[in-house]
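Q: Given only this backbone (333 positions), what sequence would you predict?
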């Protein structure tokens, strides 16, 4: 009896897939039911989905919001793209050799991604952290394979202290590289070559605005440069905290503020600053209304995207074309 049921299920499944294939072939595409085999877990980086938001932003006529779900990368962060691109670039330049080590000054999401990728590619990864770093963050780094060194100096700027320590290690030891996402153009290029084209491909070129956060500026600059090369009218929006250095430098004109070399200000059309309460509200709404759990940075970019959209000319005319806004969600936490 069970054999007959199984046979019936198989027959139905085969006929159903056959019908789907016929439909797909009529449009010139092949249906891939199973996910393709990956030769390495690193091939899981990128090709993250665009998720249509059905509730958030629905009060604005003829505007659609799509979330670029970078939390679908293996470590849950867009920084997997950045870390892999910088590491491979260093290998190609001959700087990072077999059994070498990567030194990272300071804890951030990129450090997690680097620790993971270095483990896969058999490099030692050393992360230098400040003495007051949260113990849980240290534990997270160690879980991903990092050798964590706590620097206990108490005076001065921690960024400068940790970078100086990293340079001392490089001078004393052989086969050491320091990867810096704020200066390395491999960061920006990863998004010009991959993230941007993915968005363009998945929406068939029907994208009108792109919103992302600040950070190193590499994601916004790379994606923005690609999208504008395809369609110059696309608006590139930086959505950040009101206290962000990008707002202080580019909007409030504080000339003493340093901006990363990986950031290209010529790409940005508008800066939108939001407060912490708005960011937390949209982070919560994203889960409550869409079922998507993402970090506070996503709340910031989403709040910025809504504010930008609300400032656009009214599109309540039925003849108005749909205006599509892509919002980058950088990480899960």
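A: Predicted residues:
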């Amino acid at each position: 009896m069970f054999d007959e049921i199984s046979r019936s299920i198989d027959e139905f499944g085969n006929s159903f897939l056959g019908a789907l294939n016929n439909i797909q072939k009529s449009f010139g595409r092949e249906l891939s039911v199973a996910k393709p085999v990956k030769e390495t877990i690193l091939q899981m980086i990128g090709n993250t989905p665009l998720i249509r938001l059905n509730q958030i932003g629905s009060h604005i006529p003829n505007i659609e919001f799509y979330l670029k779900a970078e939390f679908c990368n293996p470590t849950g962060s867009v920084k997997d793209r950045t870390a892999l691109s910088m590491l491979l670039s260093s290998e190609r330049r001959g700087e990072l050799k077999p059994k070498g080590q990567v030194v990272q000054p300071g804890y951030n999401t990129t450090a997690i991604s680097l620790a993971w990728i270095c483990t896969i590619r058999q490099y030692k990864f050393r992360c230098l952290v400040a003495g007051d770093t949260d113990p849980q963050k240290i534990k997270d780094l160690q879980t991903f394979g990092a050798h964590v060194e706590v620097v206990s100096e108490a005076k001065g700027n921690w960024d400068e202290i940790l970078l100086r320590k990293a340079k001392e290690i490089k001078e004393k030891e052989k086969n050491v590289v320091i990867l810096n996402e704020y200066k390395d153009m491999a960061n920006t290029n990863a998004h010009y070559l991959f993230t941007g084209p993915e968005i363009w491909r998945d929406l068939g070129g029907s994208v009108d605005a792109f919103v992302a956060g600040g950070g190193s500026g590499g994601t916004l600059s790379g994606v923005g440069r690609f999208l504008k090369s395809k369609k110059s009218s696309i608006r590139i929006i930086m959505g950040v905290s009101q206290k962000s250095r990008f707002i202080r430098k580019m909007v409030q004109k504080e000339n003493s503020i340093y901006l990363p070399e990986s950031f290209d200000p010529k790409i940005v059309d508008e800066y939108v600053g939001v407060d912490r309460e708005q960011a937390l509200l949209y982070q919560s709404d994203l889960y409550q209304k869409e079922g998507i759990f993402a970090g506070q940075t996503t709340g910031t970019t989403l709040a910025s995207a809504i504010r930008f959209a609300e400032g656009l000319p009214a599109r309540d005319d039925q003849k108005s074309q749909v205006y599509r806004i892509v919002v980058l969600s950088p990480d899960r936490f």
